[in-house]
Amino acid sequence: MKLPLLFISLVSTFWSLPALAQYGYTPPVPPTPPTMPTAPQPQYQAYPGSVPDAGAGMDTGYAAPTYGSPTYGGYSQQPLPPPQAAIGHDIMSYGYLEGYYKYTSFKESSLDPASGLGVALSAELFKPLYVKGGFEWASGNGGSKENGGFDFSSVSLGAGAYIPITGRFHIMCEVGGAYYKLDAEKDSVSFSDGAIYVHPGIKVAATQSLELEGGLLFTSSDHYDSILFNVGAYWRLFSALDLKLGADFGDASTGWKAGLRVRW
């Protein structure tokens, strides 16, 4: 009996659903929960130096700046100042023009000391080669009855190279030719002589304003200095102007120099 009753109950329920829809009855829909009101954004008055807006200083296209980026921490990274150039020793130049006064004493007893002028020009072709030329003139008046007056002149032209051991110490060597001439009232002491020379030497920048140099000059001359030891010092007066002091010690003469040098 229970099975027929259950069947009849299911059939009755199935047929009752179309009837409910036919007469306009719709099952109730659960109500939508109300939307909570949004709190208004607080309004702040902008003051100078106030906190920057949110997101200011962040990398473009990213939610947050990455560590090490130019804007990390909200501040723009300032470029570093350019490194200072290394202090150079431009006083050691192979391009210059110098002029000087020279006082010369001769070991020849028949020649009195002479006063004169000299000029030297050096031009750097390309590192480490340079060319150099020089001219000197001196005159002796004959201060005693035994000695007569004379004029002495010399000209030289050569080429050289240098090796920078450090920025402050150079080894150099010049090779060239020279011509010496002495016109004296006494024909017995007059001479003219052509020679070749080799001149090794060193340059040292003792300070930014002081250059020291020295060398040995070997020549094939028969009448003038065949070996000469020279020393010199240059003191910076202005950016490209130096004071020159020097001395030459040869087997036929001794000379003292003072003058000016212009560098480029």
What features would you describe in this structure?
The chain is mainly β and 264 residues long. It has one helix at residues 2-22, and strands spanning 96-106, 114-126, 129-140, 150-166, 169-184, 191-207, 210-219, 227-236, 241-250, 253-263. It has a 10-stranded antiparallel barrel with strand order 1-2-3-4-5-6-7-8-9-10.
What does the largest sheet look like?
10 strands, antiparallel, barrel
- Rg for CA atoms: 50 Å
- What fraction, in percent, of the residue positions are helical? under 10%
SS summary, helix count: 1
Portion of residues in beta strands equals over 45%
Give the H and E element order: HEEEEEEEEEE
Structural class: mainly beta
Coarse morphology: rod-shaped
Distance between the termini: 130 Å
- The overall pLDDT, averaged over residues, is 81
Number of strands: 10
Strand order of the largest sheet: 1-2-3-4-5-6-7-8-9-10
Low-confidence stretches: 84-88
Question: Topology of this structure?
Answer:
Elements: H1 2-22, E1 96-106, E2 114-126, E3 129-140, E4 150-166, E5 169-184, E6 191-207, E7 210-219, E8 227-236, E9 241-250, E10 253-263
Summarize the structure.
By secondary structure, the protein is mainly β. 8% of the residues lie in helices and 48% in strands. The chain contains 1 helix and 10 strands.
